[in-house]
Amino acid sequence: MYQALTDQKLIKEIPDGGILTPKGFKCGGIHAGLRYNKLDLGMIVSEAAANCAAVYTTSHFQAAPLVVTQESISSDGVLQAVVVNSACANACTGEQGYKDALRMRALAAEKLGIPETHVAVASTGVIGEFMQMEKIEAGIAKLAVGNDSEHAKDFQTAILTTDLVMKHACYSADIDGLTVSVGGAAKGSGMIHPNMATMLGFLTTDANISSADLTYALQEVTNTTFNQITVDGDTSTNDMVLVMANGAAGNEPLNRDHPEWLIFVELLKESCASLAKQIARDGEGATKLIEISVSGAMSDEEARMIGKQIAGSNLVKTAVYGADANWGRIIGAIGQSQATVNPKTVDISLGDLIMLKEGTPIAFDEEIAREYLMNDKVEIFVDLHLGEGKGMAWGCDLSYDYVKINASYRT
């Protein structure tokens, strides 16, 4: 259904869009001194109180900012601002870390003249270090927000850590005869193996939708986008994806009975999928994006399970990096999955090159396969021929630079 909506051009990509494309939002970023000379403190502000939804890491060690954000959202399901810093994760920092996250929330609320519970807090960076609160306090006081491209760039830059590029996305569609947009910005390149969402993702929409219905849509979309990427198999303490909906588009309230509900869900899905793929492509030391499409599974869930197993295989990742068409490594990954598999019915293709058909090897040109694997994007197709289940997953290759980057992460 969702793909059909996209194919019918009901959903339009806004190539240069992002969190400021939906009406009624501002953002900004500043260098507060948490990092050497890079922007490291950002804020998103909705001109009006916005209904919200969020998903969080399932790690046992949830960072203090996530605890505070959950407390804010649980009060009335409404947010008007998000304050976020890089360089320090404020994770595993005990009672002091919790107090520091509360202080960040209070400082942002005081600056904007809004209730403290209408502010979310997010942090990313090194685990186990305390926040430099004097720098945070001065930075929040100086931070200016606006609605132009430079303010968007400043925010997108301020949230980055080892990322090489900014990540943003935006899609729009007509709902109730009015243009509704969903925009987003994200950070993440390492410690990526989400069990909920991935690193930090912030989405804005001018749709009129309740917090409950927005939460339903986000949870559905997260399972097929952010939860389907992996870079290195490690889940962060700070992962969060948060959406604010301020209703500025003026559409009728969206819910699951609305005739154009699926259009909104697709808007959210396309924005999240774009951000997820950008995160996978920007994996630490990565040179290629790997996209796995699985069909013919017993269920969509089993298809996604197999896709992520392949995307997370270090042997598959290193083979792609080395442009080695060793499809046996794909078989090895599939074989580890808990999904239902019949070895006699499996097809595997690398791009257009069929390598395995109904469990039987197919001769292929090694040089053509090698040339294909030299591309920036490598597609792997698996058909189990067992059912109607379909799913996708995304990952990246594993290069020498991944070890170099993570061997000196704190230095």
Question: Could you please describe the fold and organization of this structure?
Answer:
It is a single chain. The chain is α+β, with helices and mostly antiparallel strands and 411 residues long. It folds into two domains: 2-279, L-amino peptidase D-ALA esterase/amidase (4-Layer Sandwich), CATH 3.60.70.12; 289-407, Roll (Ubiquitin-like (UB roll)). It has twelve helices and 15 strands. It has helices spanning 2-7, 64-76, 94-112, 133-142, 149-158, 211-224, 261-281, 300-311, 314-321, 328-336, 366-373, 400-407, and strands spanning 12-13, 25-30, 41-56, 78-85, 119-123, 167-175, 178-187, 200-205, 240-245, 289-297, 347-350, 353-357, 360-361, 377-383, 389-396. Strands 1, 2, 3, 4, 5, 6, 7, 8 and 9 form a nine-stranded mixed beta sheet that branches. Strands 13-12-11-14-10-15 form a six-stranded mixed beta sheet. The longest helix is centred in the middle third of the chain and has 21 residues, at 261-281. The protein starts with a helix and ends with a helix. The model is unreliable at 190-198 (pLDDT under 50).
What attributes does this structure have?
nine-stranded mixed sheet; Ubiquitin-like (UB roll); alpha+beta; 411 residues; L-amino peptidase D-ALA esterase/amidase; six-stranded mixed sheet; globular
List the helices and strands and how they pair.
Blueprint: H1 2-7, E1 12-13, E2 25-30, E3 41-56, H2 64-76, E4 78-85, H3 94-112, E5 119-123, H4 133-142, H5 149-158, E6 167-175, E7 178-187, E8 200-205, H6 211-224, E9 240-245, H7 261-281, E10 289-297, H8 300-311, H9 314-321, H10 328-336, E11 347-350, E12 353-357, E13 360-361, H11 366-373, E14 377-383, E15 389-396, H12 400-407
Parallel strand pairs: 4-5, 8-9, 10-14
Antiparallel strand pairs: 1-6, 2-3, 3-4, 3-9, 6-7, 7-8, 10-15, 11-12, 11-14, 12-13
Helix pairs in contact: 2-3, 3-4, 6-7, 8-10
